[in-house]
Amino acid sequence: MSTYAHKKGFGATIWDYLTTVDHKKIGILYLMAGGFFFLVGGLEALFIRVQLAVPNNDFVSAGLYNEILTMHGTTMIFLAAMPLIFAFMNAAVPLQIGARDVAFPFLNSLGFWLFFFGGVFLNCSWFLGGAPDAGWTSYASLTMEAHTHGVDFYILGLQISGIGTLIGGINFLVTIVNMRAPGMTYMRMPLFTWSSFVTSALILFAFPALTVGLFLLMFDRLFGANFFDVAAGGNTIIWEHLFWIFGHPEVYILILPAFGIFSEIFATFSRKRLFGYSSMVFATVLIGFLGFMVWAHHMFTVGMGPIANAIFAVATMAIAVPTGIKIFNWLFTMWGGNIKFTTPMLYAVAFIPSFVAGGVTGIMNAVAAADYQYHDSYFVVAHFHYVIVGGVVLALLAGTHYYWPKMFGTLLNETLGKITFWLFLIGFHLTFFIQHFLGLMGMPRRVFTYLPNQGWETGNLISSIGAFFMGIAVIILLINVVMTQVKNVRVGNDPWGDGRSLEWAIPSPPPFYNFKQLPLVRGLDPFWIEKMEGKTEMTPAEPLGDIHMPNPSFLPVTISFGLFVAAFGALYHVDGKDWALPVLFVGMGITLISMLLRSVKDDHGFHIHKEDFENEDKGGRA
């Protein structure tokens, strides 16, 4: 935390974070909350692997296994990977484009608190009658049969969280379009900003499909509508379409920012401009565009027919082309570079073969006829974990090490970082590589146990051992974080020494206004251009003047909390509880009154006057 936070005392610091609208603090909130849910999802994964380590295991019951499996997938995708991506978007994107904040700081805070309360609501299901148990995709044929409230927690929790994500996506779109510094044209934006831009567009178009699907499912579950009830004329396959129209772009919502993080890391630690910048930009846009044309490859076995299957198979294979362009450009960036094998660079180098393996098995799954064999087997589990863990999680770990000094002003220990890297990488491949063969040997996914003498014992044992390697790696990372923050050794603007983009031109952590004067961007890698001319900071694009900044607000917390309360009322209203309807109205009342207060309160923010800069603590309120 900043020196400013230490001066104010612990209670004041908590209040500071509860009311902040500063993108850098919101990035830290996303990092902490997403990191917490990542630990929860990781524990659920370890329970799964303990249960499957040996045949006929009774570590958990079949019903509890379904709950753990469902919550592992849901938590990792919606409550860990997504917010951790938003953590780095908040921490880096406004700095990379030379902005003082995001376009809508209040909405930025609201987006975080909606995600947080949605995630807490979902996890309350563990203590209130059982977690959702219909798989992370919650296919309607299973959810309509569910007799506990677990699925209702899933529906309402993801609705609240999803609104927060949608708000965040729109906010970053507007920020990148409208708030770039003078000279920062689209084709001078860093690759991480570009990938965040395309990701935000994907969120804008993909999340409404999930929202609609959950809305219809909520009406089926809570009010007896019949959208998905086959016996009453509904259609369960429509849920699959709605879910995967969201669900496949979601993969690219996660992986494109990962590509962006790695693009920054390859250029920084190869001490070279990123090879083929414009082709990388167009590949990013093309991946985003094609991502909406492939959703039904998850549904080759539902009976759409050969023509639909063929169309979606071809579209799926087409997406490999822009991805391949990116892989070769990263390799060519390293080619002839003066490479420094820091912890982030190790993750970046390991990412290439790991992700290529996930991509190759994706092409195998894209062959519709072959997919009839792979479908619902552990081969598919191995494939998507190679994409998500071998792509997204490696990027999140790399990004944590890379952007930590910019976010907190301290540098994580490199030795511990490398130990974490090797343990995690070995554990990852041990866990998931063998699962390809388990799948090809006939092991179906989502089974909670299996009989001996089917040839699956060794593979499952190796897989479970690998999972514990990853668990140990994460524990070492946590030790690294605590040690680094306790020692609190401060670093300068450009701790890696090779920063190329604008965020490395200002102090670490940045002052709350980011830039005293907006920088003048004279080309791609603007800070590198200045450094090559012997300068240590950016050329300003404006004279020193007053800066307008937004006021902090507690209303995002109350708006989100109101929906959290109202969701309990909606959930228990079905049971005929007398208190449910009043709770629903109280919750909605809290939200609506908070929104009303926001609309009537005259909040024009505040000004920092140019003469105040001399007295401002440079590390303050970061």
From TrEMBL:
Q: Which PROSITE patterns match?
A: COX1, COX1_CUB
The entry lists its GO molecular-function terms as: cytochrome-c oxidase activity; heme binding; metal ion binding
**Organism (species):** Peribacillus deserti
Identify the PANTHER family for this entry.
Answer: CYTOCHROME C OXIDASE SUBUNIT 1
Q: Topology in the membrane? A: Multi-pass membrane protein
Q: What name does UniProt use for this protein?
A: Cytochrome c oxidase subunit 1
The residue ranges crossing the membrane are 28-48, 68-89, 110-129, 153-179, 191-219, 242-262, 274-295, 307-332, 344-364, 384-404, 416-441, 461-483, 554-573, 579-597
CDD domains registered for this protein in UniProt: Ubiquinol_Oxidase_I
Q: What class of enzyme is it?
A: translocase
Its gene name is ctaD
Family recorded in the similarity comment = Belongs to the heme-copper respiratory oxidase family.
Q: Which Gene3D superfamilies match?
A: 1.10.287.70, Cytochrome c oxidase-like, subunit I domain (1.20.210.10)
Pathway(s) the chain acts in:
Energy metabolism; oxidative phosphorylation
Could you list this entry's UniProt keywords, alphabetically sorted.
Answer: Cell membrane, Copper, Electron transport, Heme, Iron, Membrane, Metal-binding, Respiratory chain, Translocase, Transmembrane, Transmembrane helix, Transport
* Protein function: Cytochrome c oxidase is the component of the respiratory chain that catalyzes the reduction of oxygen to water. Subunits 1-3 form the functional core of the enzyme complex. CO I is the catalytic subunit of the enzyme. Electrons originating in cytochrome c are transferred via the copper A center of subunit 2 and heme A of subunit 1 to the bimetallic center formed by heme A3 and copper B.
What does it catalyze? 4 Fe(II)-[cytochrome c] + O2 + 8 H(+)(in) = 4 Fe(III)-[cytochrome c] + 2 H2O + 4 H(+)(out)
| One Pfam family matching this protein | COX1
Per the record, the domain of life is: Bacteria
